[in-house]
Design goal:
Largest sheet: 6 strands, parallel
Helix content: 25-40%
Shape: globular
CATH architecture of the largest domain: Orthogonal Bundle
Pfam families: FAD_binding_1, Flavodoxin_1, NAD_binding_1, p450
Number of domains: 5
GO molecular function, one term: aromatase activity
Oligomer: single chain
Radius of gyration: 32 Å
Organism: Ktedonospora formicarum
Number of helices: 38
EC number: 1.14.14.1, 1.6.2.4
Strand content: 15-25%
CATH superfamily of the largest domain: Cytochrome P450
Protein name: Bifunctional cytochrome P450/NADPH--P450 reductase
Distance between the termini: 24 Å
């Protein structure tokens, strides 16, 4: 979007005074409160200027949402934090994102703050919490508690013990530990320096001397701690943050942290790890004192979950059940986030909200307390304390960037889960034991240093008795339930009834087919005469005996290749009882990245079977590949056999067969036969005749042009896909082989313990390298079912528990799995390396792996130009792994990148059966949108149009919209595209996202050319969209809708219907993929 300068809106600002600007417009003691008042007066955005510095303060949700976009903005270490760098250096909190130590420390320490690490911290957290509780229990009735003081003691001692095995022993001192005093002094001076004029700063000689003395004390204490740990021979046995910092290696750089940076990290954790949490607990206790109705609900939950016996320490699982206590803490953070500001800067000049200019390197501060009071998000009671703001229902409807107490994105607080677990544990135990008494009728006064706290908050407590408690719903926990992970027994039917069970699949990529075979094999074990087939095999001839189970996916909203005929048959007109007698159920595989077509085909199959008289005997299931697919399938699958048995009036009682490994492994010396997938997919050898880089050296990514010779007798069409038989990378193969103590040259022979279908080479000698490179997927995300198997083979209690907490059936385990495994794309080998005590045998590992799949690429050439060669355009994936384990390399893209001229790639041409092809009539206009490698099919289209024109055919006009980052970096096929334009084959429109201040994408160029676009649409043009499904495709579709509305004066509903008609008539065609 382009906005002329005269349309930009000035940012509000209080009246400036000469020389000092806005220096005295806010209270220097509590600047956040002054900013909050200015926000109420001036609105969701305003700016402040003091000599040498300008800061824009933002608090409105819509603006913050945009500033939270990490592709446009990064964290700025703002002025007060730059002063804190005097003693925290390039620690995690005060480091610049570009600094190498930030990345190294973040990668090394991240696993220690994950959900699965929290259970290990529980005993140490309880140790310190018990010291606080014992102190309060021993108070005389009229003694008052310094709430912020005791919370500071608690949280400092907790992070000291959990992080560094160091005891500050704050509850055994009359005064605060000297470290605390030095820290408070240093933070206060850092804040003060940010408010002084330069001439004032020069005069603060005594302040500077005291500041240096405080910094020296903190440095000396921490350096001593590091020296003692390094000198201790038992260092390797410690499992705390310091141990990981001393021994950890960043897998990306191969480097560890030096002692100076470790000092900075320790000081950072000691400050951030206790200062913010102590403020959170202090504010939470204040709010509970002032809201007896909320306090009563919290008491009721604590009584229900923890019970009356305070001698029994709460378990990790019990703390996670304190849902309302957690809501109280979150609501306290909403109104008074203890770290009330964070600052960002733009990578380049840009505009937000279509009206405010953001200069490059300018400072934009997010005022979190006012963001959390935005009534457009939080409702009319936004200024009031109401924990229901964090109920499940409220959270489900809240936009992502409305609640930011821990910062933003990759620079958000690494210890968030640690802090929340500690606060929930402590607050829960306080409420279990004590009545809270507001004996002074305290009025809130906020104190600000680096963080916020309620100044001068005191209270009294008295013990609770059983008479005070509501124990009606309390059930004493015998042992917290954990999922059983005994080796899954093999069931055998006691009744071999031989009822027909037909399992049909619609599958392009293999997932649905694999699930279908699983269901078929389980069916046989339960006495069914089960068979598996594709949906197309049974178009028009579904059986009425037994049951039909359908497992199918969608392909851009259309049926998979082997389900197109079946779906076409289902959509025909037929009598309402045409399928009477057919009993069925459906499980759909999909990906929510394609939101508009998610589950389109499974829903179509389900509804049309029922519409034509078939009986649904079990609910349709949905699996989302962008989420916990395995968990969703297992949830559906658990009820399948019981429902089938009831519907078919069968006794499906089973017995347990003797359990043994599916495979056994034998070391041999013979050689091995070739890759079987070559034959099964009908692949043939293609000789590489060209493999060149399309991007320049300045580009951060690689894109390859790979050209292959087509064997005699083979052919293809523009718009076809080329399926490549992939190989796992040598690095990944060696990594797996090493974990199981093989060399890659070791030859083995596999023997199978049953007659189930397998993709592995049975009874044949095979090198470990070939087995792992050619047969199995090594980089798929570990499923919860697989993690249960890992736990089964783990004896070490901490590691076993860590695995168990990822694979339970409860909501907490599902969340841990989503955050700790699914979101980070962790594989089985990742988890095996993280849990070295797991003694998983190689045969069990193989049994969990799926067959390696071919990868499909749009062919980027036309046989009319050269029938003996075809080309593909390959975006190489080679980037830091989300899991934190080294580098993630795309299986096929790196296999292709490594090939040289003359090498052989095994591949096959796949006719996608789609309509994503050139029209038969060469005069039909074309509109092509393809950023990045989405250009591939359009290069083939343009080659074809050029050949038709050279042969004397009349060709229609075409528009090509191509986008990339920079014209001097990744403008692939630039010379060819410009040559097509000079030859009047197409009109080229380019969008470069990293050149000008405002990012420009293909949809922006499409809107610019809307007049020409509409002219071609009115002339019968076919629209083609190729590329990213999650962002680009929806944005392009929205732009076409917008063009339609402008040209016709119609509304959004009519625009949607118009686009659907274009799609139905094959004039709006997409070939998209997820990221």
């Amino acid at each position: 979007m382009y906005i002329e300068d005269h349309t930009l809106t000035p940012i509000p600002q209080p009246h400036k005074k000469p020389l000092v600007g806005n220096l005295y417009d806010i209270d220097p003691a509590v600047p956040v409160l002054g900013m909050m008042e200015l926000a109420r007066e001036l609105g969701p955005i305003f700016q402040l200027e003091i000599p040498g510095r300008r800061t824009v303060i933002v608090s409105g949700f819509e603006l913050v949402d945009e500033l939270s976009d990490e592709s446009r903005f990064d964290k700025r270490v703002w002025r007060p934090l730059l002063n804190v760098r005097s003693f925290s250096g390039d620690g995690l909190f005060t480091a610049h994102t570009q600094e190498a130590n930030w990345h190294k420390a973040h990668n090394i320490l991240m696993p220690n703050f994950s959900m699965r690490a929290m259970q290990g911290y529980m005993p140490m957290m309880q140790d310190i919490a018990e010291q606080l509780l014992e102190k309060w229990e021993r108070l005389n009735p009229n003694e008052e508690i310094d709430v912020p003081g005791d919370m500071t003691r608690l949280t400092l001692d907790t992070i000291g013990l959990c992080g560094f095995d160091y005891r500050f022993n704050s509850f055994y001192r009359e005064d605060a530990h000297p470290f605390v005093q030095s820290m408070v002094n240093s933070l206060g001076e850092s804040m003060a320096r940010g408010r002084r004029l330069p001439i004032q700063e020069k005069l603060m000689v005594n302040k500077h001397r005291q500041f240096q003395s405080d910094v020296d004390y903190m440095n000396n204490l921490v350096d001593d701690l590091i020296r003692e740990r390094k000198a201790n021979s038992n260092t390797a046995d410690k499992k705390d943050l310091l141990s990981y910092m001393l021994s950890g290696i960043d897998k990306q750089s191969g480097q560890g942290l030096d002692d100076v940076n470790i000092r900075y990290q320790i000081i950072t954790f000691l400050i951030a790890g206790h200062e913010t949490t102590s403020g959170l607990l202090s504010f939470a206790l204040y709010f509970l004192l002032k809201h007896p109705d909320v306090l009563a609900k919290a008491y009721a939950e604590v009584d229900r979950v923890l019970g009356p016996d305070t001698s029994i320490k709460p378990t990790f699982q019990q703390i996670n059940k304190l849902r309302y206590v957690s809501q109280v803490l979150n609501e306290s953070l909403r109104l008074w986030p203890t770290a009330p500001l964070f600052s960002v800067y733009p990578y380049e000049e840009t505009v937000i909200a279509d009206k405010y200019r953001v200069d490059k390197d300018s400072e934009w501060a997010i005022l979190i307390p006012m963001l959390h009071r935005d009534k457009s998000v939080w409702g009319e009671d936004a200024e009031e304390f109401n924990p229901d703001h964090f109920s499940h229902e409220a959270e489900a409807t809240r936009p992502a960037n409305a609640f930011k107490p821990f910062g933003n994105g990759q620079r958000a607080c690494i210890g968030r889960q640690f802090a929340m677990q500690e606060a929930t544990l402590v607050l829960g135990q306080i409420l279990q034991r004590f009545h809270l008494i507001d004996h002074t009728n305290y009025e809130l006064k906020v104190k600000q240093t680096l963080t916020l706290k309620p100044e001068g908050l005191t209270m009294r407590v008295c013990p609770r008795t059983d008479a005070d408690r509501d124990l009606q719903d309390f059930v004493k926990p015998i042992e917290v339930a954990t999922p059983r992970v005994d080796e899954a027994p093999r069931v055998v039917a006691t009744n071999q009834h031989n009822t027909p069970l037909l399992v049909l699949h619609g599958s392009n990529m293999g997932t649905s087919e694999e699930l279908a075979h699983t269901i078929m094999e389980d069916g046989k074990m339960r006495g069914f005469a089960a068979q598996v087939a594709s949906l197309d095999d049974y178009a028009g001839k579904l059986p009425t005996e037994g049951a039909v189970v359908v497992v199918t996916s969608s392909y851009n909203g259309t049926p998979p290749d082997n389900a197109a005929e079946f779906c076409g048959w289902l959509k025909r007109e037929m009598p309402a009882d045409a399928l009477k007698g057919v009993k069925y159920t459906v499980f759909g595989c999909g990906n929510r990245d394609w939101f508009s077509t998610f589950q389109a085909i499974p829903r179509l199959v389900d509804s049309n079977l029922e519409r034509h008289g078939a009986q649904r005997i079990y609910q349709r299931g949905e699996g989302d590949a962008a989420d916990d697919f395995d968990g969703q399938f297992q949830s559906w699958y658990q009820g399948l056999w019981n429902e089938l048995g009831q519907a078919l009036q069968l006794d499906l009682e089973t017995s347990i067969a003797a359990t043994g490994p599916r495979y056994t492994v034998e070391i041999v010396t013979e050689t091995h036969t070739p890759n079987p997938f070559v034959a099964s997919f009908g692949a043939y050898p293609l000789r590489v005749v060209a493999n060149r880089e399309l991007n320049t050296q300045e580009a951060s990514r690689s894109t390859r042009h790979v050209e292959l010779a087509i064997p005699t007798g083979s052919n293809y069409r523009a718009g076809d896909h080329l399926g490549i038989i992939a190989r796992n990378t040598p690095e990944m193969v060696k990594r797996v082989a090493a974990r199981f103590h093989f060399t890659v040259e070791t030859r083995i022979r596999l023997h199978q313990g049953d007659e189930r279908r397998t993709h592995l080479p049975i009874h044949e000698p095979v090198r470990v390298y070939d087995l792992l490179a050619d047969y199995v997927e090594l980089q798929e995300v570990a499923t919860r079912t697989q993690i249960k198997v890992l736990a089964e083979h783990t004896e070490c209690p901490p590691e076993k528990m860590r695995l168990l907490t990822l694979c339970g059936d409860d909501e907490t385990s599902a969340l841990r799995y989503r955050e700790g495994v699914l979101a980070k794309r962790k594989t089985l080998i990742d988890l095996l390396e993280e849990n070295p005590a797991c003694e998983l045998p190689f045969h069990a590992y193989l049994e969990m792996l799926t067959p390696i799949r071919p990868r499909y690429y749009s062919i980027s050439s036309s046989p009319l130009k050269d029938p003996k060669h075809c080309s593909i355009t390959v975006g190489v994936i080679d980037e830091p792994a989300w899991s934190g384990h080294g580098t993630y390399q795309g299986v096929c893209s790196n296999h292709l990148r490594s090939m040289q001229d003359g090498n052989i790639a095994y591949a096959f041409v796949r006719d996608t059966k789609s309509t994503f092809r050139l029209p038969e009539d060469a005069r039909t206009p074309l509109i092509m949108i393809g950023p990045g490698t989405g250009l591939a099919p359009f290069r083939g289209f343009l080659q074809e149009r050029e050949a038709q024109k050279n042969a004397g055919q009349e060709i229609g006009p075409s528009l090509l919209f191509f986008g990339c980052r920079h014209p001097q970096q990744d403008f692939i096929y630039e010379d060819e595209l410009k040559a097509f334009e000079r030859a009047d084959i197409t009109e080229l429109h380019t969008a470069f996202s990293r050149v000008q201040a405002e990012k420009v994408y293909v949809q922006h160029r499409l809107w610019e050319q809307r007049g020409r676009v509409w002219e071609l649409i009115e002339s019968g043009a076919v629209i083609y969209v190729c590329g990213d499904a999650s962002q680009m495709a929806p944005d392009v579709q929205a732009t076409f809708a917008r063009i339609y509305q402008e040209q016709t004066g119609k509304g959004p509903q009519e625009a949607a219907e118009w686009l659907q008609k274009l799609s139905d008539s094959n004039r709006y065609l997409v070939d998209v993929w997820g990221n």
